[in-house]
């Protein structure tokens, strides 16, 4: 029989004097996305990039070799360039990635939260950190916590870094909560359904018929794929399932990879090179979709919707539109509710 649990707050009944006050019996659901700088200024971006790019899951080079390069040329020049890019997408409420992730957690909590279940969010890098939110959930009485990385496709660079940091946070705790990690959802019917519906709705709203849909995923170094990271296959499966769902002809949707970093080869074909080449091949009307991102962020709003558009139009494209991510739509919250049910099974 499934244990239902009981919320207990304060001194347990029949406990001897001096027994510490305890709060227990609740379940936490922690939604985690990548993270973003606290501001667009040089210092904030530098602090964020330093934490992000020091993660051995992101850069698989010995720190003895990598740290001098990172702390030297990269963190001298990149924060200014990235800060300028962040300025173009920043909102009154802050970074879009943070704003949407916070709203997703609040909306999901309003829908499924209860005296027993608390939904919250954290960021892998920057604020609010995973450790601070695991501590906060524990303090609220959550002795079981399901951590859900908000990446549909699994990659060691992203999903594993979320779970590494979650387990790191437990190291200093005397009374650890039970912690669960979540399976990827690149092929989950609820995700495919939500993505397909949002893309087809976007296409129907346009005043042109796209000749191709570019499914542009964040890239990873090719070497990580060769060492066994399943991300590439997960991306291709998402594209195939969405194409099948929408009855698209073979080749109408293309899988490409964006956001290269550093001099090594990354997964191909590259989004930027593809956008530059398509007009010459006679493809002048394109819709871009970002299936690796649940929420709009720097990579969708600046790299694709601004930089990508400019290079496509300069190369001879005539029509270009970007489908928004699921963000804080009802579809996003429906999807999160389905994923929460899957990950909390047996606990709630
Ligand atoms: C080696 C470097 C990087 C790897 C590997 C990588 C993988 C990866 N990243 C995302 C999602 C996001 N990345 C974002 C920004 C971003 N990514 C890198 C580098 C790597 N990412 C950098 C240096 C940056 C910062 C911006 C910049 O300086 O260009 C973001 C946006 C964050 C925001 O604040 O909006 C997201 C989201 C995935 C899914 C992924 C591998 C699958
Ligand atoms: Fe990235
Ligand atoms: Fe980028």
TrEMBL record:
Its predominant location is cytoplasm
Q: Where is the composition biased (Basic and acidic residues)?
A: 1-17
Q: What is its EC number?
A: 4.98.1.1
Question: Any idea which UniProt keywords this protein has?
Answer: Cytoplasm, Heme biosynthesis, Iron, Lyase, Metal-binding, Porphyrin biosynthesis
Q: Which reaction does it catalyse?
A: Fe-coproporphyrin III + 2 H(+) = coproporphyrin III + Fe(2+); heme b + 2 H(+) = protoporphyrin IX + Fe(2+)
User: Mind telling me which InterPro entries this protein's record contains?
Assistant: Ferrochelatase, Ferrochelatase_AS, Ferrochelatase_C, Ferrochelatase_N
Q: Where is this region: Disordered?
A: 1-22
Q: Where in the cell is it found?
A: Cytoplasm
**What's a BP term from Gene Ontology annotated to this protein?**
heme biosynthetic process
Q: In which pathway does it act?
A: Porphyrin-containing compound metabolism; protoheme biosynthesis; protoheme from protoporphyrin-IX: step 1/1
Instruction: Show the Pfam families listed in the entry.
Output: Ferrochelatase
EC class: lyase
Going by the entry's taxonomy, the superkingdom of the source organism is recorded as: Bacteria
**Gene Ontology molecular function terms on file:** ferrochelatase activity; metal ion binding
Q: Give the binding site residues for Fe(2+).
A: 218, 299
How is this protein annotated for GO cellular component?
A: cytoplasm
Spell out the family assignment given in the record's similarity comment: Belongs to the ferrochelatase family.
Q: What is the role of the protein in this entry?
A: Catalyzes the ferrous insertion into protoporphyrin IX.
What NCBIfam families does this protein's entry cite? hemH
The protein's name: Ferrochelatase
Lineage of the source organism? Bacteria, Pseudomonadati, Pseudomonadota, Alphaproteobacteria, Hyphomonadales
Instruction: Name the gene behind this protein.
Output: hemH
């Amino acid at each position: 029989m499934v244990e239902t649990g009981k919320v207990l707050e304060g001194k347990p009944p029949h406990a001897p004097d001096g027994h510490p006050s305890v709060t227990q019996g609740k379940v936490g659901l922690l939604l985690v996305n990548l993270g973003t700088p606290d501001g667009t200024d040089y210092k904030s971006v530098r602090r964020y990039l330093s934490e992000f790019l020091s993660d051995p899951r992101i850069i698989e080079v010995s720190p003895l070799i990598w740290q001098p390069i990172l702390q030297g040329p990269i963190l001298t020049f990149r924060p200014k360039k990235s800060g300028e890019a962040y300025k173009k997408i920043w909102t009154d409420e802050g970074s879009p990635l943070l704003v949407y992730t916070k709203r997703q957690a609040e909306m999901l909590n309003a829908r499924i939260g209860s005296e027993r279940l608390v939904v919250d969010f954290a960021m892998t890098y920057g604020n609010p950190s995973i450790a601070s939110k695991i501590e906060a959930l524990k303090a609220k009485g959550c002795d079981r916590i399901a951590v859900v990385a908000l990446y549909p496709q699994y990659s060691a660079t992203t999903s594993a870094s979320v779970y590494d940091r979650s387990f790191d946070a437990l190291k200093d705790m005397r009374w650890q909560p039970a912690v669960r990690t979540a399976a990827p959802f690149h092929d989950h019917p609820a995700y495919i359904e939500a993505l397909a519906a949002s893309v087809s709705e976007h296409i129907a709203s346009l005043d042109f018929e796209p000749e191709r849909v570019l499914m542009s995923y964040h890239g990873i170094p090719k070497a990580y794929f060769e060492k066994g990271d399943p991300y590439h296959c997960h991306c291709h499966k998402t594209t195939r399932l969405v194409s099948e769902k929408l009855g698209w002809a073979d080749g109408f949707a293309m899988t490409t990879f964006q956001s290269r970093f550093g001099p090594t080869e990354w997964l191909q074909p590259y989004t930027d090179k593809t956008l530059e080449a398509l007009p010459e091949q006679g493809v002048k009307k394109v819709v871009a979709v970002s299936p690796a991102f649940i929420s709009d962020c720097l990579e969708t709003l600046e790299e694709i919707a601004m930089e990508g558009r400019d290079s496509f139009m300069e190369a001879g494209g005539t029509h270009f539109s970007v489908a928004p991510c699921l963000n804080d739509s009802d579809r996003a919250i429906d999807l999160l509710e389905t994923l929460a049910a899957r990950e909390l099974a047996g606990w709630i």
